[in-house]
Amino acid sequence: MAITAVDIRREIKEKNVTFLRLMFTDILGTLKNVEVPATEEQLDKILDNKMMFDGSSIEGFVRINESDMYLYPDLDTWIIFPWGDENGKVAGLLCDVYNPDGTPFAGDPRGNLKRALAHMEEVGFKSFNLGPEPEFFLFKLDDQGNPTLEVNDQGGYFDLAPIDSADNTRREIVNVLTDLGFEVEASHHEVAVGQHEIDFKYTNVLTACDNIQIFKLVVKTIARAHGLYATFMAKPKFGINGSGMHCNMSLFDQNDTNAFYDANGEMELSDTAYHFLGGILEHAYNFTAITNPTINSYKRLVPGYEAPVYIAWAGRNRSPLVRVPASRGIGTRLELRAVDPTANPYLALAVLLECGLDGIVRKIEAPAPVENNIYMMTEDERKAVGINDLPSTLHNAVKALREDEVVKSALGEHILTNFVETKKVEWASYAQFVSQWEVDNYLYLY
């Protein structure tokens, strides 16, 4: 049921809300906010889409001579946070960013995803659903409250307390998410020490991306309350698994029927599913800069740690890039396993949707599934069946991004230009840095 301005005004009074967070996401995927007192005057401005902020201070937004931007709140994202103080509670709204002339701002990732969804409707589909599986690490804080790389448990996959000593932290995170309206499906310790996963039910992609942003905020806030630091960095420690964010995707048609399911199709998948899959695989190398956007992301995408490295798909096999989970009917979906939680969810899903739609429109044929363990295949064996690698560095990924018209169009000129420039600066800084590994391996040798 849609939330109205009347509902929001009532809840502010009934629940003693004293501050409002107007939240939006920058091009790098960082959640930003303007916090204002919940007075009648400020509330009138917010609900009339008249809340202005300086966009020139936000990474990749606008130049200083174009700084005035407006926040248009999505009332359906209204939440009241469970934290606050004796002076009252804090509530929040996720917002779209608009230009002063009332047009959507081209650099707003959330608005960009809406543009992709409008294209999806033109192609003939009603909704694009996402079930994300974000992973994160919990580390101890030092005496000054700064994060360390020391984990607070020695747990493994699905372990229980006392080996998993973060179960109380996870449980409180789940309770808070549930209070905020999330449908949490599972919570467990992941494979690596200190690593955790909380899965929430699939929903339409815009809501799912909103949920990812709020999820990260909740996880970090509750972790801090327990004396821990939560990070969604893709590979914070050498020698153990990194953190992914598997994306379970499905398209629904105008009759609210899962367009990926066909009881009579091969593997009970429809032609639409195979063509969407074909589009994903054809563009995978070129969209990796968006789904894995940091230098550190490529320390995760290496053999031996369960993250996918090769562009292929399968049913039961978990080594390829895309897997088709066993559920059929309404639950038929494609699971993309390469995405990591440093990705801007709005940008990543806009690109994935457009690549899938390209496959549907052009009827791109998916290659044969690969049910063998690809990690055990030689390079020649992989080449013989047409399996290519994902990019090995952010530098290579960004170069590939600039060569794909579908991916570039999915981002739009403003986001593409600013994203590429930011990543070029990031890579140049990294390329000049002398790491401890280089000192350890070369100093005494040469």
TrEMBL record:
The keyword Oxidoreductase does not apply. Mg(2+) 1 binds at E133, E190, E197, H246, E335. GO terms for biological process: glutamine biosynthetic process. InterPro entries: Gln_synt_N, Gln_synt_N_sf, Gln_synth/guanido_kin_cat_dom, Gln_synth_cat_dom, Gln_synth_I, Gln_synth_N_conserv_site. Pfam families: Gln-synt_C, Gln-synt_N. NCBIfam families: GlnA. This is Glutamine synthetase. The gene is glnA_2.
